[in-house]
Amino acid sequence: MTHLGGYDDRVSGSRDPFARLRLTGGRFDGDGMPIEALVELVAYRELVVGVAKELFRQAHPDRQRVPRGFAERLQLRLQRVESGSAVPVLERVQDQQLLPLDDEFTRSRDLIEEAVAAIETGRTLPGDFPRDALILFNRFGQTLRPDEGIELRRGSASSGPRFTPDIRRSLVLTQRRTFLEEVDDVGWVTEMDADRMSCRVRLRFGPTIPVSAPLDEITFAPVKEALEPNGEGPPVRISGVGVFEADRRLVRFDSIHEVALLDDAEELSKLESRFSELASLQEGWFDGEGVPPDVVVLQRAWKVLADLLDFDVPRPRVFATMEGGVQAEWSVEEDEVSVTFEPNGTLYAISVNRAAGTSDEPMLALDDPERIAQFVLRRVS
Questions:
Q1: Which residue in 51, 89, 153, 232 has the most C-beta neighbors within 10 A?
Q2: Mean pLDDT computed over 158-168
Q3: Which pLDDT does position 296 carry in this prediction?
Q4: At what angle do helices 38-59 and 104-120 cross, to 10 degrees?
């Protein structure tokens, strides 16, 4: 197998890789590995180093700091990406004559797997896992979507525990009251403080009171553009990292990556108005029957339908389903198309041509709005 970047196996201290991380679900079910997922490899190394530092401090209570150059001892190379979902193989570069093969870093790797396995199977954390290191899970897995995970395989192991967004959140909340999670939503900028390089934003399904967010040289100008002289401006797409409480309530932004004005603000406003009506439904909303869609279902549907506007998909008619889902419908002449966001997180799509008596029920994913848009536009454009 070809090695990445001409890497020479001879600099490796062991024939077995340090770790093989199998990325599964969602974006990783196709060929190759999405380039944005490379940040997870960096975050994994940082997690291993952070836990290793805590292990060193436990073993040397008389020392306040780890030795100089401690982190540099863990040199990992991306040797190759194996098939079968995306399986990046990380190999450790070291001199066998100078460094032991079993040290704080290998113990850290093993303890991380054991901690993930404990949460996955409903057991308590390993007694020797340093509790102060649990916060480090905030960075690793931050880009994972709800249906994705990372299987942690030490060395040449053929399997390992699966690290998911839910497990990541549980690990962090073991010691903390908040956790970090990526945000990609539509919102409004309500205030801006140029001196403190900060602003306040309100998200569509976030708290009613705007939350604070830091600015930098890149986000300052677009945020300023999105703020009207008298306060809240037009809707914008905001992506960044949010700080959430255990009940998933957004407390503030840890960072903002992008703020962009929307081209379809009027259509988005009409869509928002309809979702506000759906959010106000009560139990038994249809003649004493009917489960109202909860905030999670509304968020999923809102995000996808707002994204579809960017692909020039017409604004649909939107309804609540009796089971607590949300259904979007489009119709042109003899063609009818519907996309239903089920309460269990799945998506059901169907198109029907009444004249021909034909139908199509493709398998579509929530995190692939482009394919959903193609499905709708083929029938209603």
A1: 51
A2: 95
A3: 87
A4: 110
> Is the CATH number 2.40.50 carried by domain 180-261?
yes
Predicted confidence (pLDDT) per residue in 252-267, tens digit: 999 999 998 877 778 8
Of all residues in the chain, the percent with pLDDT exceeding 90 is 63
Contact residues for 36 (Cβ-Cβ < 8 A; gap 6+): 143
Burial class of residue 134 in the structure, from the number of CB atoms within 10 Å of its CB (0-12 exposed, 13-18 middle, 19+ buried): buried
Average per-residue pLDDT for the chain: 88
Place of tokens 């113990």: 107
Residue 297's closest CA among 252, 333, 365, 344?
A: 344
What are the strands of the beta sheet with 326-332, ordered from one edge?
A: 317-320, 326-332, 335-341, 347-353, 358-360
What is the Cα–Cα distance from 160 to 14, expressed in whole angstroms?
Answer: 20
Question: What was the pLDDT predicted at 231?
Answer: 64
CA angle 23, 24, 25 (to 5 degrees): 140
Name, in order, each residue with C-beta under 8 angstroms of 202's C-beta and a sequence gap of 6 or more. 187, 188, 190, 208, 209, 210, 211, 232
* Helix, coil or strand: residue 174: coil
β-bridge partners, 319: 327
- SS3 (DSSP) at 300: helix
DSSP code at position 262: -
SS3 of the chain: helix, strand, coil, percent, to 5: 30, 30, 40
At 13, the pLDDT band (50, 70, 90 cuts) reads: very low
- At residue 101, the pLDDT reads 62
Cα end-to-end distance, the chain, whole Å: 46
* 69 phi and psi angles, rounded to 5 deg: 80, 10
pLDDT higher than 80, residue 206: no
Which pTM was predicted? Answer: 0.76
| Pairs from 35-41 (Cβ < 8 Å, separation ≥ 24) | 36/143, 37/86, 37/143, 39/143, 40/140, 40/141, 40/143, 40/144, 40/150, 41/76, 41/78, 41/88, 41/90
Give the model confidence (pLDDT) of 14-54 as tens digits: 467 999 999 998 888 877 788 889 999 999 999 999 999 99
Asked if residue 266 lies in contact with residue 228, where contact means CB atoms within 8 angstroms, the answer is no
Q: Tell me what the mean pLDDT of segment 163-192 comes to.
A: 93
Q: Where are the domains of the chain?
A: 4-176, 180-261, 265-380
Residue-level length of the chain: 381
Sign of the dihedral defined by the CA atoms of residues 258, 261, 264, 265, in that order? positive
